[in-house]
Fold each of these.
Amino acid sequence: MRTKRTESFDFSSAIERGELTLLSQIRKRAARVSEQVPLGIGDDCALLRLSAGEDLAVTTDLSIAGRHFQLDWHPPESVGHRALARGLSDLAAMGARPLAAFLSLGLPRGLTAGRGRKSAGSSTWVTRFYDGLLALGDAYKTPLAGGDLAESPVALSDIVLAGAVPWGRALVRSAARVGDAIYVTGTLGGAAAGLDRLRELAEAASAARGQVGRTKGLRVSAEMASQLAAHLYPQPRVEQGLWLRRRGLASAAIDISDGLSTDLAHVCEESGVAAEIDGNLLPVHAGASLAQALHGGEDYELLFTAGAKARVPGEIAGVAITRIGRVVRQRAGRAQITLISGREKAALEAHGWEHFS
Amino acid sequence: MRTKRTESFDFSSAIERGELTLLSQIRKRAARVSEQVPLGIGDDCALLRLSAGEDLAVTTDLSIAGRHFQLDWHPPESVGHRALARGLSDLAAMGARPLAAFLSLGLPRGLTAGRGRKSAGSSTWVTRFYDGLLALGDAYKTPLAGGDLAESPVALSDIVLAGAVPWGRALVRSAARVGDAIYVTGTLGGAAAGLDRLRELAEAASAARGQVGRTKGLRVSAEMASQLAAHLYPQPRVEQGLWLRRRGLASAAIDISDGLSTDLAHVCEESGVAAEIDGNLLPVHAGASLAQALHGGEDYELLFTAGAKARVPGEIAGVAITRIGRVVRQRAGRAQITLISGREKAALEAHGWEHFS
């Protein structure tokens, strides 16, 4: 957060409400000067340092209330976590080592104020947002090195991730070859199923609110909890991306942020190939539907291709790896992606990423 | 623009309205693969390459309709120009060489559609926004290397600038020393005066709209035009920042984005010093008031300090350099910034950056 931009929050009223601590808290909790961040928050720019022979990988991801999250459904910690996870997942897909994050935050005034007197300055929406974001940053050694802050009629964040990758070694979308096998990390569809659970919980909580003393607590089974975790606190596959890049095993890679059908289509387009997916091989998240696994999005797993003879392990850094199909030649009149289910074959259209629209 | 995010625009209706060209246009007009951008738009991350012994400088700037610009006052080309100029100005203040820009854009659907049939796909708000942004990028050799695109209830942009600066040579805010002279580039207050002119013009145009055939054309004098240019199309002082850094002349530097009083206060805070400004020396923009020069903001000139004996030229790369005051010791009970006008001395409070609030 550059000091000067913090003035776009109203300082005098911020002081009255005891929020000024927020800004100094952010600065305190954010990037300390280190080898990879020689200059953090507080000047016109932050400075990052690469090792010799490394390129910088950069990605930006915009999240807007009502479109990427719902203020009345998503806990603020989850909104912060997911914002950073989206960026880290893009680094993972390139096999890049995270260096630092930058956060631009636009917030309605209400989200910077505490609800009660005791909570002022400590448990406001925005401090809880930072709690979620910084906890994930700590887990992946990704300090917050700067950003911007402004009042906005709609809550939004734009996260920028900077990472490092050796020259010419980044995993790209455009290098899948005919005959390669297609793999995914983890399970698919959990985030989409979790979003359904979240919607149901929000509606149940809303209904219970009118009946004080009548609610018996919300029902959350282990399966539901696992789906909610997949949606609210997805784990970017940074370790797995680094492993694949270092071993030189993957030919192409992408992260599954918009849904398998959409993201695999991107690989096909950029590589000039087609793909066949075996529906029976898909690692569907417990309780999720096949449609959610195919189109759901926001799972932030990696999809990668590797030569047919490559020795791809069943697990990388504790996460299961599943072969789900193969890369085939593009042919006129044939679908870009074909879904095989037993003896049936059907064209798989890209249907990812709609959510709240 | 990562391909996958462009799906957050509705593709099917975009195709119907002939807007799909926008996305391919952006990709075509954006960063080509080069030595400093080995991989541009189209993968999970873009890749940037530094020279040996360089740090990466990164800055992000959020611009939100109603706060940083007004859709019914600002031409879209100006909104795009100003978004990029803010970021380039931050690089200039560090003495960094621009490498590439990243743009996250949130837009209401109306701004991606043409108003008439003939204009569809060519002169929509967003294409004019890109015209302004990319023209400035061309002028400062700053390609657009990536970003994000989403539908948003409010128009907003977040610009990320990446630049390069030799290790340990960046101009920082924190290195002003007691006895240094204080300088600014160009003139001050022009952008604030230009904003007043813009408001007047918008009101006059609005009034004329009700009286078809009665308007005699808007009155725009040369002075007004110069003020409007300062506000709508500010020139970031990239060349001047690079010159100062290469010559090792400046002790500290900052860009004047929030107003002289606010930005000089940042230098004083970060350097642990105080400052005296001579009101008679200020290079006030033609037709601007002293208050606008002191507090107006958005001039995007550089403020820098240099040793009292440093030979600072009267002009750098075609832009005037003016000594406006000096760095003095902090003393209890003395103002951080003192404004001297003839024999009078007064404390100068930081009053920058309010604009539309």
Amino acid sequence: MAIFRQANSSGLTDVPGFEVAGIHCDIRGKEDGRLDLALIRSLRPASAAGVFTRNALAAAPVRLCRDVLAGGRPVRGLVVNSGNANACTGGQGLSDAMRMRALAADGLHCSEEAVFVCSTGRIGEPLPMERIDHGVAIAAGKLSAHGDAGLLAAEAILTSDTRRKVATYRMETPSGPVMLAGMAKGAGMIEPDMATMLAFLTTDADIEQTFLQEMLREAVDDSFNRITVDGDASTNDSVLLLANGASGITVVRESETAPAFKEALEALCRDLALMIVGDGERTTKVVEIRVSGASSDEDARRAGRAVANSLLVKSSWFGNDPNWGRIMDALGYSGALLDEQSVRIAYGDWESGPAADAFARGRVLTGNRATWKAIVAADRFRIEIDLGKGGASYRIWSTDLTEGYVNFNKSE
Amino acid sequence: MAIFRQANSSGLTDVPGFEVAGIHCDIRGKEDGRLDLALIRSLRPASAAGVFTRNALAAAPVRLCRDVLAGGRPVRGLVVNSGNANACTGGQGLSDAMRMRALAADGLHCSEEAVFVCSTGRIGEPLPMERIDHGVAIAAGKLSAHGDAGLLAAEAILTSDTRRKVATYRMETPSGPVMLAGMAKGAGMIEPDMATMLAFLTTDADIEQTFLQEMLREAVDDSFNRITVDGDASTNDSVLLLANGASGITVVRESETAPAFKEALEALCRDLALMIVGDGERTTKVVEIRVSGASSDEDARRAGRAVANSLLVKSSWFGNDPNWGRIMDALGYSGALLDEQSVRIAYGDWESGPAADAFARGRVLTGNRATWKAIVAADRFRIEIDLGKGGASYRIWSTDLTEGYVNFNKSE
């Protein structure tokens, strides 16, 4: 079944049966005109799936979203603000999130239990509820299925991001087309197991909730859970997928369309995840780390994450320095089974082409040094690590660590 | 029993019965005159204890040191070079380390099995054996018990350190004085469970090996294993303690002197550990993190390490920004049992004085904001974190993350 990536995505409005709005209501209190509130409406009752942060201090809105999902009933919309995470805000935070949801339910003419609520931004500040009250009313009046609205909504969820993150896929099924689109945000506090990231996905397929949830969990595990900027997993991370059935096409388990839908969903999540890691706060490179030959899945994950999160390794990438010795060091303390003779490290271009060995069978391959140096000088490249101890593998995307990152984060 | 910290330490030569030397033999091949090889000689057979890196890719010299210790026989000395770690160097590396040890044994007129060998510096380069051959001979000719020699040896083990690290303690026992001294190096790849750090300790007490090892393990767990600069644990970390009995005073388990010796050893290790973290590559602050109220020792450790290694938390310290919200986030993903109502975070001056609450019982204490801001602006301060879930505690020292660190490490 053919799957196409749409060249110019407008985000959620590319899917029939959804209206969105993105507006400014001055959440940050800076009167800078920055968009900071988005509203999403499904014109039909939609089934929903969600994956959330595992941070023990999950923010109030995350707890409400979990409740909505657990209810298992059709969903009609979602409200989200940027500039304030409504995290570590105690009982006040929970009642503010409930109030924000009630305001959105009013605007969307539906019950509170049919609305998701999300927040992203600064931790520990109470939400400015008067401005949100005003903002939700404005947004409800601007709901539109036009592509411009989709782009404004994608803009309204950003925090330290430097650009919008949207993508759209189209599947040609025997019964007609199915659309799948998403918008995301995230640039700092990015680490596998979610991050200060939000992603909202919509489709006009008709899909039963349990199956939808299962497919979303798998797609998230292979995309948003495989990126790291700084190893910090946040209090607010959420990925939500709404399926409204507007296409009239049903995707059920074991059907011909199911594998194609899964493939499109995974591609959409990977696109958005790479947009997030590619927009890491003041970073300059994206590096794909492919671990193979691990004695277990857990070992492959440990090895990949140790390399992806090593400050010394990440600093060396910033300096265009391959520094395989620091990679060996990180592998050594990762806890994965390996030894000096078994490990192979190779550098390759982004996505394709052969990789040049740097270290193998206990020896450095100095003859290839010019090749790795050229590869590591690029904005994107990959590192292949074979532990030589088994058949398990893992893939993770990371960034370099830059002086700009530290400068950017030294105060809020 | 009275314990004194000596105001001006010369390092290992402060202990009777030890001779040392620190010389230049151009390990780095830069002809810069930098000291890079040290030799330590115990004039009497000494019992020895050692604690080493848990990195799976432990360097060749670390493996030899483990063999020496396992032999359980008296030790006569130690040779160490800086500028080259002799790590990830395969069979060649092991035979080079054995050759280096044999050269030192010649110079010290003892058997190879009585000599420790250590290396620190760049990973993956073969040792320049001709220069080491020459260097060990020069060092053997310069062995001296004079304080100048102690300081030269302390200088010869440094890599990216900006200053020597030495400390000396004196215990007044009923039978006379016992001395305990140490020298250390380390500035990058610093993380609990050891680091690119070396520490060499000497005492003139007479202590049986098993008891010596037990006391060293405890002291290291509470000092060198509680510091972190960048979360990277290296291939070469070693702490070695030689006890030569020159004082004629024996320290045995259950004796009156044992608790005093332990206390002095712990103070010495803590002093050297704090010198290492205080000299973290291009860092500007040392922060003590005290976790209490954890439901288990493991939870206390997890919480402390998550905060100590969070890039966002460390970046905020660099900017004099208390940012308790990022600390909450790190606690939340640490895996420790806690909730928003149970956690208390307070900022205090280095070592003493009351701490000012920033977050407690689910609320931020904005009235104290000026106090925390002033505390965090200092070069050294402490953070108290009470998880409110039990009685376990943990202490760890960390640094800020600076633009200078990234710049320094972007290439070797």
